[in-house]
Specification:
The complex is a heterotrimer of chains A (about 325), B (about 400) and C (about 300). Chain A has 13 helices and two strands; from the N terminus they run αααααβααααβαααα. Chain A is mostly helical. Chain A has a domain at about 35-250. The longest helix of chain A is centred in the last third of the chain and has 27 residues, at about 215-240. The model of chain A has no long low-confidence stretch (mean pLDDT about 95). Chain B is α/β, with parallel strands linked by helices and about 400 residues long. Chain B is about 40% helix and about 20% strand. Chain B contains twelve helices and 15 strands. In chain B, strands 2-3-1-4-5-6 form a six-stranded mixed β-sheet, with helices on both faces. In chain B, strands 8-7-9-10 form a four-stranded parallel β-sheet, sandwiched between helices. In chain B, helix 2 (about 35-50) packs parallel to helix 11 (about 300-315), helix 3 (about 75-85) runs parallel beside helix 4 and helix 5 runs parallel beside helix 6. Chain C is an all-alpha fold and about 300 residues long. Chain C has a single domain (about 5-295), classed as ABC transporter involved in vitamin B12 uptake, BtuC, CATH 1.10.3470. The longest helix of chain C is centred in the first third of the chain and has 32 residues, at about 5-35. The mean pLDDT of chain C is about 90. The chains are: A mainly alpha (about 325), B alpha/beta (about 400), C mainly alpha (about 300). Chains in contact: A-B, A-C, B-C. The interface between A and B is medium-sized, with 26 and 30 residues.
Chain lengths: ~325, ~400, ~300
């Protein structure tokens, strides 16, 4: 174990805070703040997964909200059929089925869209990922069986042995542990040879190609991993909100995810979590003061892009680096 | 005990002292986006109700908290969560949009609090998802169009084309008119909601269908856009228009400012009109006009009613908010002065009330408003009531 | 097949396409020449609509209002360039997306505060408010014909500007070689500001033209901007010809999809399911088209040669 840098201390401190504070809120009868923390941690998972390709891989995906939506519908659709009948093949409250569907469908969607998207570069990549996101958005809008635009209420949460997701604390613990797991997974990937190639391709793709690396393959793999992790976040989000709608996949949601990553600091481990935390808290605080909270929020966003290099985590990095 | 401690702690932090006895009402409506046209009028109705009550229900102070649903089901559910969990309100009222109501319903019902819709009336809440703690201060989506279907039959309309937005309320409205209309429906177009505001393709199809009449439902700003395009397409003589919640006190001043005289004479159905002759309505309309220089919309009237409904319940139990059964019984009896006049509730907590045919006219000062031209029926059935097992 | 209906729907599709072209042309100019991703372009379209609507009510004359409002949106564009966009040119596209995403929030909320949520209904002079009988059985709203004509005229003007004027030459050179243009002693910053203002005026004009149909309302920008992006991506970023053809294709697909898709769907699903599925699927079609085109030609149909 190397010497702890400021960044590591901030990461550790932040993660401890997230572990300790929310259960305290709950014990004090502040169920709403517990909810806020759960939302923040789940979106943190989504942001961490986006960061794997955006921060470390240089792939600016503007359609990541689609994976959240797919993951959430993987809970909602089987539960819907289990409650109201039909589609016997998947009609079930079984959490393992929901989880498996969420991850596999997200991964499959990532594989197909990634294979096409990664043929393009730069702004074209940003826009084609957005187009695929919108496609998923409109697809679910068109599905009248699942109420289209009106969304789907999940009457029964995913059922697992030993844990009960109806209990806010258990759901929070699951989300928190998942966040830690996803962060460790991303760290492992980034530090592996695979991760080196991925980051090398972000810096200089031509060089990696001449070195004999099929960077397209590396990128596609990272894209699929990221999509699957984001789908997992959607699985949690569906269980948390118990209401899902195509709106979860709208392009503005993808924009918000990107914002979280950049706000906290792309290509850092804790940045996306910090970003999602600050995003949710600022949104909550501003919107309690004025219905016109989007105005200061937008100014903040512009200010962030103009003046803060490397996001909030950048503030903690020593100048020497 | 721990919970008590926490609440006391929070109360001390916020106000410094334990508060006086109060009734807490969460009111969810739309204050941002284009949907805020309706939400702002509703807010005016609520504020006027509070003013008329002097801020008190019996001995209790009223603490009313607005929540903005941002015109989205998901956001609506989030603010409802907050009202229930953080503000711990006694009543959750409001809801313009059927899909927002459907998304938020479970949160309120599960918490054991009362939920009162001041507008939205999606089918399930009056049917298979009815609940003892859920009340409507308005109507079911289907009912206004069902009344319109009767009008169409009386007018001898043989065939109809329908255009409506593709969300819960639009589907309910379409189902409603189809339920009572005896002629043939030549086509139905459901448009993307709330984003689609250009209806060129749909109007061209309606015209080509050769129908006797066109039925549409476009609440809020979309209504203005639709009316304008209907006029520009020159369909008034060949394809007469019948509407639900498309022309109202919110759009009429805009039409008047734009000199859009084609709207005068338009007819639509409603359970309320500013000209209804009862003391509560006269006071409401007069004071609303004095304050805002405009007629109230039905949305404002329903919101005003919903607050009085809560007042009736709170006062019936002498301010004892733990007496839920007593409050429920009071609401079931519709014991308050409604701006629509006397009415009652059916077994699924949906109002049983007269429906009227209303027409756009000029008032004595030249302002565009509406008047009642016919009482269509003393009541329109709630078509979902049979599914309600309460 | 009802050919009269088909003909009218094609005209409707053309009208939508040309309106999209007005928005997309400004976007492709800014995007192609300044290499700047401007998500807030749609908000300029919205503010143009509001300025035009307010002036129409104030002056009582729609055409006069448009003549004054177009330069005003140009000024707005200049201000946005000066205070936000210019600071972002040397950053990457991700920063452009985020910065202009913030700008959307600022502009949309400001419009809500200034003009309220109700939107403005724009009155038209009587001669524009009626219909024209094109031939027997086909009548079409006069104002939609006007949009078609204005769209075609602007398209012609832009082709002339880009291909046959000195400004156009500079614009094309600016896209290919910034340092060379600067070396020729031309102030590239002024050139960029001009292009940005021109793009804003085009978007504003589009907003003013649609306002008498759909009313000027908050949120209208967010709907058109993504479609406009799809248009220029399909056409090839920076290509005026691509923007034109892309816009017409998208306009036709959207309108014809809304017109005929439900009938097609009714062949294999229930009537009510078809009614609900059709609008969403026709909205999805343009994205499917975009994905197919990019899968085959990753730089769009007409990638500019200079890049």
């Amino acid at each position: 174990m190397g010497k702890m840098t400021v960044v590591s201390w901030v990461t550790l401190f932040g993660m401890v805070l997230l572990a300790v504070l929310p259960p305290l809120f709950l014990m004090n009868g502040q169920a709403f703040y517990m909810d806020l923390a759960t939302r923040l941690v789940i979106l943190g998972i989504a942001a961490v997964s986006l960061n794997l390709i955006l921060g470390f891989g240089g792939m600016v995906s503007f359609g990541h909200a689609a994976f959240i939506g797919l993951g959430a519908y993987a809970v909602g659709i089987p539960a819907h059929h289990a409650t109201w009948g039909g589609f016997d093949l998947i009609a079930s409250y079984n959490g393992f089925l929901h989880l498996g569907l969420a991850i596999s469908i997200s991964a499959l969607f990532a594989l197909i869209t990634g294979a096409i998207s990664l043929r393009t570069k730069g702004v074209y990549f940003i826009m084609i990922t957005m187009a695929f996101g919108q496609m998923a958005f409109f697809l679910f809008q068109s599905l009248d069986v699942y109420n289209g635009d009106d969304g789907l209420t999940i009457d029964v949460r995913s059922e697992f042995p030993l844990i009960n997701l109806d209990e806010p604390l258990q759901l929070y613990i699951l989300s928190y542990v998942s966040l830690v797991g996803v962060m460790l997974l991303v760290r492992m990937i980034v530090n592996s040879r695979f991760g080196m190639v991925l980051q090398g391709a972000k810096g200089n793709n031509e060089r990696m190609l001449t070195l004999g690396y099929n960077t397209y393959f590396y990128r596609l793999t990272a894209y699929v991993i990221s999509g699957a992790m984001c789908g997992y976040a959607g699985f949690l989000l569906g269980n948390f909100t118990t209401f899902i709608s195509p709106d979860m996949m709208h392009w503005t949601r993808s924009g918000e995810l990107m914002f979280m990553v950049i706000l906290g600091g792309a290509s850092t481990l804790f940045g996306p979590v910090l970003g999602s935390s600050v995003f949710i808290l600022v949104e909550e605080i501003l919107s309690s003061f004025t219905i016109f909270w989007h105005l200061p929020f937008g100014l903040m966003l512009i200010g962030l892009v103009l003046f803060i290099r490397g996001g909030l985590m950048g503030l903690f990095k020593s100048k020497g680096r | 005990m721990r919970k008590l401690l926490g609440t006391a702690l929070a109360a001390t932090m916020l106000t410094g002292l334990a508060q006086a006895a109060e009734v807490k009402i969460g009111f969810v409506t739309t204050l941002t986006t284009g949907g805020a046209v309706i939400g702002n009028d509703i807010k005016k109705g609520v504020d006027l109700a509070l003013e008329h009550m002097g801020g008190k229900m019996g001995d209790l102070d009223i603490n009313l908290i607005f929540g903005d649903d941002g015109f989205k089901p998901e956001t609506g559910k989030q603010v409802t969560d907050k009202l229930v969990k953080q503000d711990n309100v006694d009543f959750v009222a409001g809801y313009i949009w059927s899909h927002v109501l459907m998304a938020s319903r479970k949160t309120v019902i599960d918490s054991g609090k009362f939920m009162i819709t001041a507008n939205a009336g999606p089918g399930p809440v009056g049917g298979k998802l009815c609940h003892k703690n859920f009340f409507s201060a308005s109507w079911m989506n289907d009912q206004g169009p069902m009344a319109m279907g009767e009008v169409l039959n009386q007018k001898g309309v043989k065939s109809l084309y329908i255009i409506a937005p593709n969300y819960a309320a639009g589907k309910g409205m379409v189902a409603g008119v189809k339920r009572t209309f005896k002629g043939e429906v030549l086509g139905t177009d459901m448009t993307t909601w709330p984003t689609q505001l250009d209806f060129s393709a749909e109007l061209a199809k309606a015209k080509a269908s050769g129908a006797d009449g066109l039925f549409v439902f476009y609440p809020g700003k979309a209504g203005g856009a639709f009316m304008k395009q209907y006029q520009q397409a020159g369909l008034k003589s060949s394809l007469p228009l019948y509407t639900a919640f498309t022309i109202d006190a919110l759009s009429l001043p805009k039409f008047q400012a734009a000199g859009f005289t084609d709207v005068l004479g338009s007819q639509f159905t409603g359970h309320w009109d500013p000209n209804l002759d009862n003391a509560q309505n006269k006071r409401f309309v007069a004071d609303f006009r004095a304050q805002h220089g405009a007629y109230p919309s039905p949305y404002a009237a329903q919101a005003y009613d919903s607050i009085f409904m809560i007042k009736g319940a709170v006062e019936a139990v002498g301010g004892d908010l733990t007496n839920q059964d007593g409050m429920r019984a009071a609401m079931e009896s519709a014991n308050y002065d409604s701006v629509r006049g006397a009415f009652s509730y059916d077994s699924s907590h949906i109002p049983v009330q007269p429906w009227y045919l209303r027409e756009v006219v000029k008032d004595s000062d030249g302002n565009w408003t509406t008047k009642i031209v016919q009482t269509i029926a003393q009541s329109v059935e709630n078509p979902y009531a049979a599914d309600c097992k309460m | 097949m009802d050919y009269t209906l088909l003909f009218v729907q094609v005209l409707n599709g053309l009208q939508l396409g040309l309106l999209l072209f007005l928005v997309a042309s400004g976007l492709t100019l800014v995007f192609g020449i300044l290499d700047f991703v401007n998500l807030a372009h749609g908000s300029i379209y919205m503010i143009g609509a509001f300025i035009g609507a307010s002036l129409t009510l104030l002056l009582g004359n729609f055409l006069l209002a448009v003549l004054i409002a177009v330069p005003l949106t140009g000024v707005l564009g200049y201000l946005i360039e000066r205070f936000v966009a210019r600071q972002l040119y040397d950053k990457d596209h991700l920063d452009h997306v985020l910065g202009t995403f913030g700008l959307i929030l600022v502009l949309d909320t400001s419009a809500h505060i200034i003009w309220g949520p109700a939107g403005i209904t724009v009155p038209l002079p009587a001669w524009l408010d009626g219909q024209v009988a094109l031939f027997t059985g086909v009548v079409f709203p006069t104002f939609r014909l006007l949009i078609i004509s204005v769209g075609l005229a602007v398209a012609a003007g832009l082709f002339w500007l880009v291909n046959y004027t000195k400004l156009g030459m500079l614009i094309r050179a600016g896209a290919s070689n910034r340092t060379m243009v600067s070396a020729l002693g031309i102030d590239i910053q002024t050139l960029f500001a001009l292009v940005f203002a021109l793009g804003a005026m085009l978007a504003g004009l589009a907003g003013m033209l649609i306002a008498p149909i759909t009313t000027a309302s908050i949120g209208m920008g967010g709907q058109i901007i993504i479609t406009a992006f799809v248009v220029i991506i399909i056409g090839g970023i920076g290509s005026m010809k691509g923007a034109f053809i892309g816009a017409i294709i998208i306009g036709l697909i959207d309108t014809l999809g809304r017109s005929f898709l439900d009938q097609l769907f009714e062949l294999f699903m229930s009537e009510s399911a078809a009614e609900t599925a059709a609008p969403a699927v026709s909205a999805m079609m343009i994205y499917i088209l975009m994905a197919i085109i990019l899968a085959v030609k990753p730089q769009g149909l007409f990638p500019p040669k200079v890049r």
